[in-house]
Amino acid sequence: MSDHTKLEVEHELEIAFQAKIDDEQKVEPKDWMPEGYRKNLIRQMSQHAHSEVIGMQPEGNWITRAPSLRRKAVLLAKVQDEAGHGLYLYSATETLGISRSQMIEALQTGTAKYASIFNYPTQTWGDMGAIGWLVDGAAICNQVSLQRTSYGPYARGMIRICKEESFHQRQGYQIMIELAHGTPAQKKMAQDSLNRFYWPSLMMFGPHDSDSAHSAKSMKWKIKRETNDDLRQKFIDQTVSQIEYLGLEHPDKALVWNEERNHYDSSDLDWDEFYSVINGNGHCNRQRIQHHIKAHEEGAWVREAMAAYKQKKQLKNATNAA
Amino acid sequence: MTQSTQNKVDSKQDLINYLVRLGDDSIVLGHRVSEWVSNGPFLEEDIALGNVALDYIGRARLFYGHAATLSEDGKTEDDFAFLRDEREFENYLINELPRGDFAYTIVRQLLVDLYNKHHLQALKSSTDETLVAIAEKASKETSYHCRRSTSWALRLGDGTQESKRRMQLAVDDIWGYSHELFEVDALEQRLIDAGIAVDCEQLKQQWLADVEEVFEEAGLTIPEATWAVRGGRKGYHTEHLGHLLTQMQFVHRSFPGATW
Ligand SMILES: [Fe+2]
Ligand SMILES: [Fe+2]
Ligand SMILES: [Fe+2]
Fold first, then answer.
1. Is 0.90 exceeded by the ipTM?
2. What phi, psi does A30 have (nearest 5°)?
3. Distance from A84 to chain B by nearest Cα, in Å?
4. Which of B37, B141, B217, B245 to mutate to test the interface with A (most CBs of A within 10 A)?
5. At A257, which helix (H) or strand (E)?
6. Which option is the CATH number for B8-221+229-254: 1.10.3720.10, 3.20.20.70, 1.20.1260.10, 3.50.50.60?
7. Would you kindly state where each structural domain of chain B is located, as residue ranges?
């Protein structure tokens, strides 16, 4: 095939691909897809998987200190769910032709990212409430929208994961209710956690649409179904009454209902802080990756032993069969 | 109080104490295993170890919960877990040892899981109905735990030289804590006589046979050394337990009377 015809074929494939997307058909692993689509998905899905896994650390930080046995069990089960989400998303991403060990290496060398929210430290038990309620809550807004994403394995993964995430959000909010309606010291703890996690939660939706590097392409390919700003607005709106019910003060003093827009107007976010944390100035950036690397390296001999044992068994079976 | 009511009161208190020590065993080991979350050798193990930890924490809640009900003084499961000091905890020492490396954790689990297999089996014949129900539930979990720790022991014992070295090292370090698992004190003897508690002396031979079978296939050896550390059931602990409790109890104790 000449280069010229190759380009033409490619072009036709791309047109057919876009037509399929526009027609709301799902893309499946064996289907032809543009390289850019594949790359974009690998970036987003692996980042999502890494976020589930790194997210185990800030919450894992409180399992041994949970204030009641019931809360301890619930938190442990939650963190375990997140590990399951990570696993599930790694497998879904592998359908795009990248291995889990390649993804892990990209995470550990910093070429792949994870949600920056997990660079914030968890300092009190209240943070377990705020994270479940706000961080899982923001994740749900995002993931509900991703249930309609164009890549089949990702869309199906989101449907499954969302069920558990809503459970997490309810449990987190339950913690907040107990605190906010508890002793004055507990209420203070709840307010403090809300104050610290409210803003970073809003930033989980990513930069403004106008500043988002990947947004336009992702929307055209229907990898993303709603824009960062739309999803953020949804989250801001739904959180207002939840804060009211808790009887806590809203961290955004400029928040006001806008009759015309039918939405709340809110303060501008501190994007300098957002980028500063992403760029390594968060309290936990280095700690999170070092923790991951340490566990991975300490587990190396275990993985080697497993492989050696498996090989021995296979050899033995082969000799027995011969 | 007549002599017979006095006896009833004493034996109820005996049962409460017995339940609390079984709860202590479970919560302390559950705590240790939970420390693996996000530290496992790969993600599937984070999940599996989390499962095991959850089983033990659940078991602790059942034992403490039963004790709380019998107490009839408004005590809750949390009072037992969070408001008692190191000297009052009566778990076996083996449960409080630090999590160590993965080999150390697998060896401890193997010894304890196999112990629990026989212990729970025997507990099913208790005259206390609630204990029987707990044992039924827990022994289902424990058969999974046993399969898990046995297959890991085989893989690591017969994996690489390095994994074998680590496993044997762990066995040598932990073995001396296994002896007290099979010793009965006065409290347990009274409850054994009443048909309530397990006579753990009777479990030793079966347990040893199980361990030897796994060790044989895994290429591990039982140490000839005769050292043995004892004291868990008397509240005579290693230095590790105090730190574990400090961590576990700190939030709960910082907010007296709060609910969570
Ligand atoms: Fe999550
Ligand atoms: Fe998740
Ligand atoms: Fe979650």
1. yes
2. -85, -10
3. 7
4. B37
5. strand A256-258
6. 1.20.1260.10
7. 8-221+229-254
**Residue-wise pLDDT tens digits, B177-212:** 999 999 999 999 999 999 999 999 999 999 999 999
Q: What whole-number distance in Å separates Cα of residue A101 and Cα of residue B148?
A: 25
Is the per-residue pLDDT at A193 higher than 90?
yes
- Strand, coil or helix: what is A121? coil
Dist CA B113 CA B59 (whole Å): 13
* Residues with Cβ–ion distance below 5 A, ligand 1: A 139
> What's the token pair of residue A167?
């459970």
CB pair distance less than 8 Å for B251 and A125: yes
Tokens 């949804």 locate to A234
Full-model pTM = 0.96
Q: Does the beta-carbon distance from B260 to A79 stay under 8 Å?
A: no
Structure token pair of residue B65: 């919960």
The length of chain B in residues reads: 260
Return the SS3 of A27.
Answer: strand
Mutate one of B27, B28, B35, B38 to test the A interface: name it (highest A CB count within 10 A).
B38
Would you give the distance in Å from CA A226 to the centre of its chain? 16
